[in-house]
């Protein structure tokens, strides 16, 4: 069942009763979902650059694109529910392992045996900044040790994730671009390594389009549920790049070398249905019932015996671990060179100077 008008109104009241300020990102998200749920897609003229507050509100609402009103209403209710439950769980067990760490680019909640890690930069289509790579690693490490039985990764807004934040290329340290490429290769290897070693069932709830590294690492997840609005795109050649996230190994294994070539070399964008037919996605749901159906299923899975699930994951994955770490190291080292290539620098500059989009 989808959130009713009554659920929506009750969620609006609960927001007023929140004891803790949820922070600007979340408040903007609530505003945007409220406007989308009540008025539909953004219909206001874009405010001027110096009208900071209204520009931020406009950006947040506009970022929801054509998200249907019912989905926005449901997402609003879900977001309020995650805020109220994180307040009440920290009241019930202060200082215990349910305690939530503050993240700038993620919303992490834990309830019903499920830790949910939600990418939370909707105005940037959830592009992964350098800080966000670190936060995702921290959140996964915490989830591996908390008392949840399964861990879910999802996105806030109309995108699941638009991949690496291309602005990461502009933050060059005093050691120069070579030093930046070296540090980035280490960060990438650690980031992907955290997924390879994650001990519990790891599930992706792909709520919208997914790009780049957010797609490649799906090969390291244990199940991938997708809305029929989701697409899967790895435009590495267009960006002068090469695959990461172990996709050079997992994708040919999952879908066969020819289909993997179309995605990883020619940058073919797959619909959710195509990705499911090729084995990258476990199941596709209509967007209108996506959240409801997936979370009902996940809540049931989270009640299965945790040790049995962990051990089964070990049995399924452990034989591959050494190979995956070797592939990860090789992909990261190849990319360290690619980032310094003219092909990559030109493609990135074209995007950042607004001359190109995917
Ligand atoms: C020296 C070496 C340093 C290297 C450091 C890297 C370390 C780790 C690397 C791991 C490797 C990963 C590979 C990849 O992930 S490749 C994929 C990279 N992603 C992209 O190329 C996507 C680029 N974005 C787009 O093409 C489009 O934005 C979109 C996703 C198709 C959406 O288009 P739409 O028209 O709907 O929306 P907007 O373009 O208006 O987006 C809203 C604003 O968000 C900004 N945005 C979106 N995605 C990104 C992104 N990936 N990086 C930076 N910024 C992004 C977009 O520019 C808009 O901003 P604006 O409002 O200011 O215009």
UniProtKB/TrEMBL annotation:
GO molecular function: delta(3)-delta(2)-enoyl-CoA isomerase activity; fatty-acyl-CoA binding
Pathway participation: Lipid metabolism; fatty acid beta-oxidation
Keyword Isomerase: yes
Keywords associated with the record: Acetylation, Isomerase, Mitochondrion, Peroxisome, Phosphoprotein, Transit peptide
Domain of life (superkingdom): Eukaryota
EC number: 5.3.3.8
Known role: Able to isomerize both 3-cis and 3-trans double bonds into the 2-trans form in a range of enoyl-CoA species. Has a preference for 3-trans substrates.
Protein name: Enoyl-CoA delta isomerase 2
Taxonomic source organism: Myotis brandtii
